[in-house]
Design a protein that fits this description.
This protein has about 350 residues and is an alpha/beta fold. It has 12 helices and 11 strands. The strands form 2 sheets. Strands 2-1-3-10-4-11 form a 6-stranded mixed β-sheet, sandwiched between helices.
Length: about 350
């Protein structure tokens, strides 16, 4: 198992370095001379981008890729500040309470914006609908996976056998998308808790190791890990609205008869009260970067799907996601002691 963990660590490091290379980064995102501004707002000092996860992880690499060229156009460097802890809540609390002047941004994800507030009510200090929604960046899917044994033919076989037996699945904590995806599938397919029991781990890599090693029967694995380790897993279904180009042979849950969207989203938020001129200026630059074909290719190679809806709709999208995942948490009875 240690060998598998080290393999994943090396794969994560390789993806991190590849992300830095394609973004042209080295720790701080250095800006070129200021471009002509059409937005009516210019930052007066370096922009602080809070990433609520540790350096080198998937969210960190994604944030640095997206912001590699934003500073060039705004005329100031964008400095990434990693603030990990409490599954993203610590960094999000910090960003939410920062001065609303456009100088502090948050690289957000569904895990701690749309899900965590419904579970960790005492720890969360931010209003999940209260931040200034700047721009969407990307989505990431999860694949229902199992150790390569060949004892399940397809998803319908999994559902039928699960109802008549007892199996386990791994996730990386209450409210993690690996748990949320499975809870959606259990609800849609009529699989009881006794038939599919949860086993929590400390992160996605340990879940991957547990699935490959057979310590758990199933797991919803992030697409980047599924792409890196798919030859060692049986990949049954993707919890996304459409198939992912990096895994073209893996059907979606919807194709298998279960209308489920278990994607996680990533985007840029700002503290409540941030001037609209600043929001609009940064929004345009983020949207410009995401629309770049080279960036889109990099995102797909890394296991992400570029945001496809207008950035002006981001606030409404977040509100809908927060309500949707809150309902899933309530229906699944997910609770923690704080």
């Amino acid at each position: 198992m240690k060998a598998l963990f080290h393999i994943e660590r090396r794969a994560a490091r390789a993806r991190f370095l590849a992300g830095l290379a394609c973004a042209g980064l080295a720790g701080m995102l250095a800006a070129a001379p200021a471009a002509a501004q059409e937005d009516g707002w210019k930052p007066e000092k370096p922009i602080r981008l809070i990433v609520p996860y540790a350096p080198g992880g998937g969210t960190d690499v994604l944030a640095r890729l997206v912001f590699s060229k934003v500073g060039d156009s705004l005329g100031q460097p964008v400095v990434v500040e990693n603030r990990p802890g409490a599954n993203g809540i610590i960094g999000t609390n910090l960003a939410y309470e920062s001065k609303p002047d456009g100088m502090t941004l948050l690289f957000a994800a569904a895990d701690f914006i749309s899900v965590a507030p419904h579970i960790y009510k005492k720890v969360v200090k931010f209003d999940p609908d209260g931040s200034a929604a700047v721009a969407p960046a990307a989505k990431m899917g999860f694949v229902l996976s199992r150790q390569k044994k060949g004892d399940f033919k397809d998803l319908s076989d999994i559902v039928a056998k699960s109802k008549a037996g007892h199996y386990t699945y791994g996730h990386w904590g209450p409210g993690s998308m690996a748990q949320m995806g499975m809870e959606l599938l259990k609800a849609k397919a009529g699989i009881g808790n006794d038939s599919m029991q949860e086993i929590p781990y400390t992160g996605a890599a340990p879940v991957m190791n547990a699935v490959m090693g057979g310590q758990v029967d199933f797991g919803f694995v992030p697409t980047p890990l599924a792409m890196a380790s798919g030859s060692r897993l049986d990949l049954f279904a993707l919890g996304s609205p459409a198939r992912f180009p990096g895994l073209p042979d893996v059907p979606t849950l919807k194709e298998e008869g279960y209308d489920i969207d278990a994607d996680t989203w990533f985007g840029v938020l700002a503290p409540p009260g941030t001037p609209q001129a600043a929001v609009e200026a940064i929004r345009r630059q983020v949207a410009r970067v995401i629309a770049d074909p080279a960036v889109q290719r990099s995102l797909t190679e890394m296991g992400y799907v570029p945001a496809t809806f207008p950035p002006e709709e981001f606030a409404a999208f977040i509100k809908a996601e927060n309500a949707r995942w809150g309902e899933v948490v309530r229906n699944a009875g997910i609770k923690v002691e704080e």
